[in-house]
Design a protein that fits this description.
It holds the Pfam family Complex1_30kDa. With 187 residues, the protein is an alpha/beta fold. Helix content is 21%, strand content 25%. It has two domains: 118 residues, 2-Layer Sandwich (Beta Polymerase, domain 2), CATH 3.30.460; 42 residues, no CATH class. The strands form two sheets. The chain has a five-stranded mixed sheet with strand order 1-2-5-4-3. It has a two-stranded parallel ribbon with strand order 6-7. The mean pLDDT is 88.
Length: 187
């Protein structure tokens, strides 16, 4: 019986990285968790040795209080094998080597992750803001980032219970998700 693509990926990753990388498989997609210092080696190995030549995406995930996960998805079109590469960086100093020299497509993804989460990709050729306006302060996809505009201006068309023409009783107004309790529209 022929081994599944996921099984082949896991065997080759385990043979090359051993205990340094944690492997799992779910629904035919292999996940490889590597320490930050192995991040470029993992993606280079995936491209050069596993045939994962298609770079799909890279992003960050805020995981307070520890730090951030950086996740990349690559694909082997010949074997139809998916690899999800993950690593973690600490919140106090979120730095990771760039992989733009391995996958050129990582350029914009790393810039977006830098801008939205504050993860610094060392060696990136042009790590400058990509999406936010000039002068924007903060990293809006961090969980501690307050979406002040939700407090300053209500969501268009949103009605609290009791704000209709039916005369039903009103209840206490609640703040939008992600807004600290000490913020208010009136303050």
């Amino acid at each position: 019986m022929t081994a599944r693509p996921a099984d082949r990926l896991m065997e080759r990753l385990a043979a090359h990285f051993g205990e340094r990388v944690t492997l799992s498989e779910s629904f035919g997609e292999v996940t490889a968790d590597a320490p930050a210092e192995l991040w470029p080696d993992l993606l280079r190995f995936a491209r050069d040795e596993l045939g994962c030549v298609f770079f799909d995406w890279l992003t960050g995930v805020d995981e307070p209080p520890e730090g951030f996960a950086v996740v990349a998805h690559v694909y082997d079109p010949a074997d139809r094998a998916h690899l999800l590469a993950r690593t973690r960086v600490p919140r106090a100093d979120p730095r990771l080597p760039t992989v733009t020299g391995i996958f050129r497509g990582a350029d914009w993804h790393e810039r977006e992750t830098y801008e939205m989460f504050g993860v610094i990709f060392e060696g990136h050729p042009n790590l400058v803001p990509l999406l936010l306006p000039d002068g924007f302060e903060g990293h809006p996809l961090r969980k501690e980032f307050v979406l002040a505009s939700r407090v300053a201006k209500g969501w268009p068309g949103a009605k609290e219970p009791g704000e209709s023409d039916h005369g039903s009783p009103s209840r206490r107004k609640t703040l939008p998700p992600g807004v600290p309790p000490d913020w208010s529209r009136d303050g």
